[in-house]
Amino acid sequence: MAKDQTTRICCIGAGYVGTCTSAVLAYKNPSVRITVVDTSEAKIGAWRSRSFPISEPCLQEILKQVVERLAFSTDIEAAINAADLIFICVDTPTVTKGTGEGFALDTSAVVACVAKIVEVSTSDKIIVPCGTADQLRKLITQKNTKGLNFEVLSNPEFLAEGTAIHDLLHPDRVIIGAENTPKGSNAAARLVSLYQAWIPSDRIKTTNTWSSELGKLAANAMLAQRISSINSLTAICESVGADIQDISQIVGLDHRIGPHMLQASIGFGGSCFEKDIRCLVYLAESLGFRHIARYWMADLEMNDFQKASQTERITSLLGPLASSKLTIAVLGFSFKAGTTDVRSTPVLTIVRDLVGRGHKVKIFDPKAKKEDIQETLCKANLGRERAIVSLNAMQACDGAHVIAIATAWDEFRTRPGLRRMDWKSIADGMQQPRLMFDGCNVVDAKYLEGLGMKVLELGRKQAML
């Protein structure tokens, strides 16, 4: 293995992060061969057949261009032995039982991967995991009986679903953490060289592994904090008559703050923000910093409040009608626009609360798979007789008393030029009181009111019906 050259990479985990990262690395490094491996034959089969298991803009186009140097396989041992560098891109959910329950990261899948690498390797390896590097180094020391050299690097991903390929091609930064040893520095340099194929050197930051890992948690926690900060003002706006969109603009025009992540919503979701904040809370608690833990915990509590309060606002506006068994259409179920991911979606809270109040809920999402939505509802013990997944928006809205827009898909916008739905037919097919709750502020209230709807907007005052 040449000292400064990486020619073969193995990526363990054929999911969202592993496949997107491998595709872009192969695209930008023509001399490198990458094998993405997974224990799931169905997942590998889907990638091979081009029936892609995830939807991500531009991913399909890149995969077509790297077909000769990016392979998918279930032969994990062979891929490990052929590789110089191994990325571990497996799930690290929050611990559900035992120490750290509800907060710590469950790194058992990562640990299993590292144990497998040490067991089957016949040559030195550079390992890039998605877990605690110190923990993995200790594991390697215990299991390495062959005298091989295993260097562990930290290379956290900063991908947003819906823009992952763009994020990889045009990153704000790439962070690489390594041990401060000659071998650690050499391993980091080899990973740096892969990214330098397209990323300027001043955007590639090398540091120690703790700084790398904590930096990832801090970035996601602060992004989530911005969302919760603007969301915390929606209830105040609704009470006093201020406009949350004006507030977002006023705040965002301050160059010290900027406009990003200041769009009010029903709450943040997805697989990263809450998980990383919980991990940060657990880390602070374990180090004895309880005030710091409570500080970040407040962000999660604010997000829970934001999700739960939307159902309260809808029902309070309905007045006496709220006690009736109404039909409510929920438009959008993925945790944000631009992704099919329904994991930890904030929309589930609204659906569960509405069903719990005896209402019938009909759900439509233009991108999320019907079976994924149904699986999420099933796990939440929401029977199909009360929570129905519709094939299109018209079907979901037909006969509805209330429509709630929960995900900011362009399909739901009403501005001329962006309008894709027949809102007049939808309005005509609704039952009184024909209430529209816009939880994403994507519709023109005056336009829908002209069609006979009553519009309730997030972060804006509304009189009783």
Summarize the structure.
The active site is at residue 272. With 465 residues, the chain is α/β, with parallel strands linked by helices.
Task: Please tell me about this protein's structure.
The protein is α/β, with parallel strands linked by helices and 465 residues long. The chain folds into two domains: 8-207, NAD(P)-binding Rossmann-like Domain (Rossmann fold, 3-Layer(aba) Sandwich), CATH 3.40.50.720; 252-457, 3-Layer(aba) Sandwich (Rossmann fold), CATH 3.40.50. It is built from 18 helices and 14 strands. The chain has helices at 16-28, 41-49, 59-65, 76-82, 108-120, 133-143, 164-169, 182-195, 209-232, 234-240, 244-252, 273-286, 290-318, 347-356, 370-379, 393-397, 423-428, 445-450, and strands at 8-12, 33-37, 70-73, 85-88, 125-128, 150-152, 174-177, 204-207, 327-331, 360-364, 387-389, 402-405, 435-438, 454-457. Strands 3-2-1-4-5-6 form a six-stranded parallel beta sheet, sandwiched between helices. It has a six-stranded parallel beta sheet with strand order 11-10-9-12-13-14. One of its GO terms (cellular component) is nucleus. Its EC number is 1.1.1.22.
